[in-house]
Amino acid sequence: MLSPKQIDAYRKDGYVVVRNFCSKEETDYLYEVALQDDAMRKNALDLNDQSGKKNEIVFMVYAGQ
Questions:
Q1: Boundaries of every domain in the chain
Q2: pTM for this structure?
Q3: N or C: which end of the chain has fewer CB within 10 A?
Q4: Spatial separation of the C-alpha atoms in residues 49 and 61, rounded to whole Å
């Protein structure tokens, strides 16, 4: 469940960051699935985080109304 602060951030920015949303095992599994998917591999972006390290995987979930 999102906190009131996270909900406010979503309404303000249009997104919210939820750290540790998935366990390491879930993240590893999703990463492997993404690597095996042609569309995911062809459309993946190579991004750095704020510290300059590569992001392993980024999930974007649309919560439309």
A1: 18-65
A2: 0.47
A3: C
A4: 19
